[in-house]
Specification:
homodimer; 397 residues; alpha+beta; L-amino peptidase D-ALA esterase/amidase; Ubiquitin-like (UB roll); 2 domains; 6-stranded mixed sheet; globular; autocatalytic cleavage (chains A, B); L-glutamate N-acetyltransferase activity, acting on acetyl-L-ornithine as donor (chains A, B)
């Protein structure tokens, strides 16, 4: 497998573009992905009971697991917008379908931004009318889906599968209201691999648990979360059979793409200066390991300690204790970087200079060994900073 | 019932004092409560699996539900301190027992402060040796249990029960690592009422659910949480019978004391400028109503919005949606103060000037009507501010 430079349109037969329609002051706010032929598709959505209108429209479009185009806007979430919001999301789907000449049942819709505002449909309509399949700017799509993100988030990988080069590309946006459960804010993954709808959905559901669902910025699960995978088969590899070597390779590509996007979202959390990775080993199950890892990385006290570059293991073991998994409180080992802080829950001497250097880095790894089993799991988050307060207290509805 | 000025030693036969032993630089850090006779006692403790040494010692002392004295230190939590920590907590119990001439089995022990440091026993010993039952300073006890708290937290109420005046006093500390589950950081409640151990424990367990367990500052459940109630019977009221009018009156006193202390803890959360009260009505059960209320008041995005004095109902309804209770996302009504923001999940016009004044206050009330049942619940928290980051990032272990 190779990581290459590229965009969401790098896999064969994919097109993408983005533009400034006028929902935001200056930044790009409307984007589309298009596949030359309808692609097999898989999706996971927010588990928040309050779901945005586009979630319902996309779920309906996904009934046959075929998607040919995705239309996305940022700036307005189209959440808590009632019947009119639902009509508007459907209208956005229809407009994109006409403009791109695809069946509207094969158009997925996604939105992100402020909750409770109606989409100004004249702006959406005029924006969509400017999309020209002959003139694409794929990187502009990466920009068009952002809100408070400070950078675009993308990764492209290639791999030979059943004798053919297959490409997979992923793009995501995150930043605030990030504590996904079944999906994350918005992530789109395209591939030209031939693979069945069932294997695609199975893989997405499985990998979401260990990647997108294992990040947290602020503990708040959004109303608009969605991960959508499109596989159009244009690489012309012999179709991927379940449990074959090809399947394993494909899953490895997907794991790398998903985990990379998840980490990028965690690192670019609102106000963040550091990526925090927590690995829990020695747990009774991988589910419990992930639970403990996510509780530690989500603790405000751990997040502020990392911002302050303080090896405050008391706050870490406290979070392990309340995570709700099986734990023997006398048996916990802990490391920050490669410096051991606790052995069987007892403080260890460590090199303060090395620790200082470890904590000054942009990525901090915390490892917890529960010493009661063989299973492990990871979670990713960011530090909690003055800037987070600024971003969220100065933001006015 | 009457609220009066007083201290934890106001009920008949109680004595309390506090002093500077030397665990902290200058502030008071050691305190005791003493009852002239062994009191019937009830307690609830942290559900964190990582429990501090004094929790184990107090649980053992509580085996017969009789307590005559409580010894408390602040500055060091005596948590994650292994066998030596447990020995030290027992030694602290013995020292207090000797000094006050009570059976050590009747001495409860509590600690709060830094995790992972051993108690310097020579300081504890010298501090306890200065306690003189002839010279009490009850208010100094209120001060001696504080850590990052900015103010003491106490309330005293009196009521005539079965023809006798009964007094109940409560004192607490909170500030950080506040997201109690079965108890809160430290709260001590004394009363001279005659009441059985069983009724006392039943009432404490029941009321803890709706008071101390309904506050959150930072989502972190401490290793040292404890609420302890002592009833020494010296008011000489005829004993309180279950379900009698006297029982009702006594429960009302306890409810007021517990809820007042809980709100004081929430309001004095680290860096807080505002108390936030969330009331959820129209829920299917009171448990679900409390769950939703606690999720809303614990949301970092809601907390920063309140700091920014922004009526950001999108963040509130988002938290309602992910709280995990039964909800009809189309039926939610919402108010901040007495201004309605949502009716059946649709935005309502409100008076912006009145809203501005409401949000500028030190206490903000958010009401959510789920409109699917008859039950209700409340939770209390505080805003999330620059000062919270400062307190927790600059604090070094």
């Amino acid at each position: 497998m190779q990581i290459i430079d590229g965009t969401i349109a790098s896999p064969k037969g994919f097109y993408a573009t983005g533009l400034h329609a006028g929902l935001k002051k200056e930044k790009k706010d409307l984007g589309v992905i298009y596949s030359a032929i309808p692609a097999n598709a898989a999706a996971v959505y927010t588990t928040n009971q309050v779901k945005a209108a586009p979630i319902f429209v996309t779920k309906e479009a996904m009934a046959d697991q075929k998607v040919q185009s995705v239309v996305v806007n940022s700036g307005i979430a189209n959440a808590c917008t009632g019947d009119l919001g639902l009509e508007n999301a459907k209208e956005m789907q229809s407009l994109a379908a006409s403009q791109l000449n695809v069946a509207k049942e094969n158009v997925a819709v996604a939105s992100t931004g402020v909750i409770g505002k109606q989409l100004p449909m004249e702006i959406i309509e005029s924006g969509i009318s400017k999309i020209d399949l002959q003139q694409q700017q794929p990187y502009a799509f990466h920009e068009a889906i952002l809100t408070t993100d400070t950078s675009t988030k993308e990764i492209v990988v290639t791999e030979e599968i059943n004798g053919q080069m297959v490409t997979m590309a992923g793009v995501a946006k995150g930043s605030g209201m990030i504590h996904p459960n079944m999906a994350t804010m918005l992530a789109f993954i395209t591939t030209d691999a031939q693979i069945s709808k069932d294997l695609l959905q199975e893989m997405l559901a499985d990998k979401t648990e260990t990647t997108f669902n294992q990040i947290t910025v602020d503990g708040d699960t959004s109303t608009n979360d969605m991960v959508l995978v499109l596989a159009n088969g244009l690489a012309e590899n012999p179709i991927i059979e379940k449990n074959s070597e090809a399947h394993e390779k494909f899953i490895a590509m997907f794991q790398l793409v998903s985990e990379t996007l998840a980490k990028m979202i965690a690192k670019d959390g609102e106000g963040a200066t550091k990526l925090i990775e927590v690995q829990v080993v020695g747990a009774l199950s991988d589910t419990e390991a992930r639970l403990v890892a996510k509780k530690v990385v989500g603790s405000s006290l751990v997040k502020t300690a990392m911002f302050g570059e303080d090896p405050n293991w008391g706050r870490i073991i406290c979070a392990v204790g309340y995570a709700g998994s099986q734990t023997d409180p006398e048996k916990i080992d802990m490391w920050i970087g490669d410096q051991q802080l606790l052995k069987h829950s007892q403080p260890q001497e460590f090199d303060e200079l090395v620790m200082k250097e470890t904590l000054e880095k942009e990525k901090i790894c915390i490892t917890v060994d529960l010493n009661i089993g063989e299973q492990s799991g990871k979670a990713w988050g960011c530090d909690l900073t003055y800037k987070y307060i600024e971003v969220n207290a100065l933001y006015h509805t």
